[in-house]
């Protein structure tokens, strides 16, 4: 059975239908990419999984439990954590305190300390900046902190929403290298990303979303080689 499974999920903003019978799954050990143009419904899909929106139809199962109408705080406790688009840091707090906020549902102090060191190993720049106010970090450093904060909850599934948005090309490479490393350490990743080429390079499988519907699925390699995907999303 899949770790995460969406079946025929539909969602609305008022009268506007944002998702139309979306079916997708993420298995243990996978990086799964969700690609599509602006307004396709990618962020809505993540918001629905994380409980910030409730679907109008369909079901969501995670780790053998139905979470279709579960609140966001319970979903975090069950093991789904998101690094949101736009980072959403606590900008007046230090790097270290932002990381501690990611562990707010935990009480195991030795484990929390060990995970902060794990984040600092993944993101050495954050270790150098640990006492710095997060609002003064560069865009790339803020993205690293948002990902590190999500990891502090020890997620069973990490959802990343546009991790490369607005970053310089060299930092984009760094971010995707770290996505691979996080996955290699045992954390499945659901990746929403405008940079379809990079997303599909790191993904085991991918889904293409257009106007709220899944129109294509396959391995990362298959989608990279697909003429339709190349024309629509890879600029070829």
Account of the protein in words:
- There is one protein chain.
- The protein is an alpha/beta fold and 236 residues long.
- The chain folds into 2 domains: 155 residues, P-loop containing nucleotide triphosphate hydrolases (Rossmann fold, 3-Layer(aba) Sandwich); 64 residues, no CATH class.
- 39% of the residues lie in helices and 25% in strands.
- It has 10 helices and 10 strands.
- It has a 6-stranded mixed sheet with strand order 6-7-8-3-9-10, with helices on both faces. A 4-stranded antiparallel sheet has the order 2-1-4-5, with helices on one face.
- Strand 9 and strand 10 form a beta hairpin.
- Helix 3 runs parallel beside helix 6.
- The mean pLDDT is 92.
Strand-residue proportion: 25-35%
Cα-atom radius of gyration: 17 Å
Assigned CATH architecture of the largest domain: 3-Layer(aba) Sandwich
Biggest sheet layout: 6 strands, mixed
CATH topology of the largest domain, which one? Rossmann fold
Please give the domain count: 2
Instruction: Count the DSSP helices.
Output: 10
For the biggest β-sheet, the strand order reads 6-7-8-3-9-10
pLDDT averaged over residues: 92
Percent range of helical residues: 25-40%
Give the topology string: H per helix, E per strand: EEEHEEHEHHHHEHEHEEHH
The computed structural class is alpha/beta
- Give the uncertain stretches in residue-range form: none
CATH class of the largest domain: Alpha Beta
Query: Which of globular, elongated, flat, extended, rod-shaped describes the shape?
Result: globular
The number of E-state strands comes to 10
Distance between the termini: 37 Å
């Amino acid at each position: 059975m899949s770790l995460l499974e969406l079946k025929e999920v539909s969602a609305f903003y008022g009268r506007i239908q944002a998702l139309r019978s979306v079916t997708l799954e993420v298995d243990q050990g996978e990086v799964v990419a969700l690609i599509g143009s602006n307004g396709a419904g990618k962020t809505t899909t993540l918001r629905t999984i994380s409980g910030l929106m409730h679907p109008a139809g369909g079901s969501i199962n995670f780790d053998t439990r139905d979470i279709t109408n579960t609140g966001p705080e319970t979903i975090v406790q069950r093991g789904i954590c998101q690094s949101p688009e736009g980072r959403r840091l606590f900008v007046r707090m230090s790097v270290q305190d932002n990381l501690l906020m990611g562990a707010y549902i935990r009480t195991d102090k030795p484990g929390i300390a060990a995970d902060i060191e794990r984040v600092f190993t993944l993101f050495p720049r954050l270790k150098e900046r640990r006492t710095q106010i997060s609002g003064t970090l560069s865009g790339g450093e803020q993205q690293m902190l948002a990902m590190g904060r999500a990891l502090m909850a020890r997620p069973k599934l990490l959802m990343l929403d546009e991790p490369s948005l607005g970053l310089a090309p060299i930092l984009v490479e760094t971010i995707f290298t770290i996505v691979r490393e996080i996955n290699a350490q045992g954390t499945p990743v659901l990746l929403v990303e405008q940079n379809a080429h990079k997303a599909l390079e790191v993904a085991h499988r991918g889904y293409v979303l257009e106007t709220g519907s899944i129109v294509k699925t396959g391995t990362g390699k298959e989608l990279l080689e697909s003429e339709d995907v190349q024309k629509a999303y890879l600029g070829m």
